[in-house]
Amino acid sequence: MVNTKDAAATLGGFPYDNRSRVYTGSDNDFVLNLLVPRLRAEGTALTEMRTHYNTRGQLAVPLVTIHTQRDQ
Fold first, then answer.
1. Which of 12, 17, 31, 52 could form a disulfide with 41 if both were Cys (CB 3.0 to 4.6 A apart)?
2. Closest listed residue to residue 19, CA positions, set 43, 41, 50
3. What are φ and ψ of residue 22, in 5° steps?
4. What is the pLDDT of residue 22?
5. Are 14 and 42 in contact (CB under 8 A)?
6. Residue 12 banded pLDDT, cuts 50, 70, 90
7. pLDDT at 68 over 90
8. What's the pTM value of the predicted model, to 2 decimals?
9. What is the reported pLDDT for 72?
10. What is the chain written as a DSSP string?
11. Distance separating alpha carbons of residues 30 and 65, to the nearest angstrom
């Protein structure tokens, strides 16, 4: 996971929870879901995100992004 340590340091804890997530689209979803690490979000990180990072997705100014053909 990219930038996980930085996010945890900035937010005061781990911000992601995938305990109930079911992943699909692999060659063997059953095995994938058995083996994927399951993580619990920390309350401090969730509170920080709700308080300071609750975005609407409506940009106030134009945004230019760049990507390659292999970006996920």
1. 17
2. 41
3. -110, 115
4. 97
5. yes
6. very high
7. no
8. 0.61
9. 63
10. -TTHHHHHHHHTS-----TT----SSS-HHHHHHHSPP----HHHHHHHHHH----S--SS-------TT--
11. 35
Residue given tokens 């804890």 in the structure block: 13
Which tens digit of pLDDT belongs to each residue from 15-66? 889 999 999 999 999 999 999 999 999 999 999 999 988 777 888 899 888 8
Q: Which residues of 2-26 are buried (b: 16+ CB within 10 A; e: fewer)?
A: eeeeebbeebebbbeeeeeeeeeee
Coil, strand or helix: which one is 48?
helix
Q: Tell which residue, 37, 40, 38, has the closest CA to residue 13.
A: 40
The residue count of the chain comes to: 72
